[in-house]
Amino acid sequence: MLDETARKELALEHCRRMTSGDVDRMLELYTKDVRFEDPVGSPPMIGHEELRVHFQRAAQARTVDVAGVPVAAQDGLHVAIPVSVYMNYLPLGPALTKHGYLDKPADPFRKRIKFSLTSVFRAGSHGLIEAVWVYWGKSDLSLLDPGQE
Predict the structure, then answer these.
(1) Considering the chain, what percentage of its residues have pLDDT values greater than 90?
(2) Sign of the torsion formed by the C-alpha atoms of 125, 32, 137 and 81
(3) CA-CA distances (angstroms) from residue 3 to 31, 43, 65, 118, 132?
(4) What is the model's pLDDT at position 145?
(5) Is 0.85 topped by the overall pTM?
(6) pLDDT over 70 for what percent of the chain?
(7) How many other CB atoms are found less than 10 A from the CB of residue 77?
(8) Which residues of 103-119 are buried (b: 16+ CB within 10 A; e: fewer)?
(9) Over 80: is that where the pLDDT of 149 sits?
């Protein structure tokens, strides 16, 4: 088991690497058979190849993760962290608009999306992330003008 400090650092490192846009470095944090559910209730992504596609899309959208204070569970496995995620509307925004999560902006090339979310990570004794559950809903998304982050 990882201690609380190590689990919190793992969650913070996930946010730092997401912001860096380096997909290969992101995948180094995860087991080969990781289960990643974003958002909770959607079909999970299983394994590095499915997660690679997800992280590549996030990098393409110039994602920036602003981490809050992580909180460790007493089970020795889990840590939760609130995160404000900022990304370009394109390329992911049209899918969110199609599903009714966002209104279509007049100028999609200039808009950013803000997600207010909470991620829960399960870490194994090997120091890698085994599973992730990302919680957000329609009321946790907003459209921003450039410079509003």
Answers:
(1) 91
(2) positive
(3) 18, 30, 24, 21, 18
(4) 79
(5) yes
(6) 99
(7) 17
(8) eebeeeeebbbbbbbbb
(9) no
In whole angstroms, give the CA distance from residue 76 to residue 5.
Answer: 11
Which residue is listed with tokens 């997660």?
51
Q: Which of 31, 9, 17, 24 has the alpha carbon at shortest distance from 132?
A: 31
pLDDT above 80: residue 146? no
- Quickly state the pLDDT bin for 27 (edges 50, 70, 90): very high
How far apart are alpha carbons 34 and 131 in whole angstroms?
Answer: 5
In whole angstroms, what is the distance from residue 15 CA to residue 64 CA? 8
Strand-strand pairing, 64-67 and 71-72: unpaired
